[in-house]
Design a protein that fits this description.
This protein is an alpha+beta fold and about 160 residues long. It folds into 2 domains: about 100 residues, Roll (Ubiquitin-like (UB roll)); about 60 residues. About 40% of the residues lie in helices and about 25% in strands. It is built from 5 helices and 7 strands. The strands form 3 sheets. A 3-stranded mixed sheet has the order 2-5-4. Strands 1-3 form a two-stranded antiparallel sheet. A two-stranded antiparallel ribbon has the order 6-7. A hairpin with a 2-residue loop joins strand 4 and strand 5. The two termini are about 40 Å apart. About 15% of the residues are buried.
Length: about 160
Amino acid sequence: MSNSWKSFINIFCIILFSFAAAGEIGPEKSLFKIKDIVIDGLKKVEREAVLEKISARKGMTLTNYILKRDIQKIYRLKYFESVEAHRQGNNLVFKVVEKPIIAKIVFQGNDEIDRDDLTSQIKSREYAILDVNTIKSDVKSILKQYEERGSTWPLLITLLKK
C-alpha cells in the first residue's frame, strides 16, 4: 500500500473517530508539515473563500485538531454537500462537492397570489446555492400566505437545479 493511501486512511480514521467521539478526538497529534493546500471539486465557489475560513496554512504542521476544525469550518460555509480531507505527499487536499445552484424558481398553479408577492416572501433566490433548510422555510411562508387567504390548495413550486 502506498504512503499516500496510508496517509488517507490515517486522516480518514482521525475524522471518523472525531465524529464518533462527539467532539472528543483525544490528545492533539502532529500529522505532517503542509507544503500546499489543494481544494478539489470547486466549480462556483472561489478557492480564496475556502482558504480564508480555514486555519491550516502552507508551512505549518497540521494537527488532528486543526484538521477537524477546518473541515467543520468548510461545512459551515453551507456551500458544500460533502467535505473530505487527505494527504497527498505533503499536500493537504480537501475534496468538496458543491451544493447545486438554483437556476430558476417557477410557481405553478398559482391564481390567487401575485408572483412578486410570493417571491418577496421566500429567501431562496435564482442563482443562489440550494439550501434545504431555506427551502423548508420558504414552503412554510408560502403555505402561511395561502392559509391567511383561506385557500387549501397551494401552488406547486419548482426549483430547477443547475
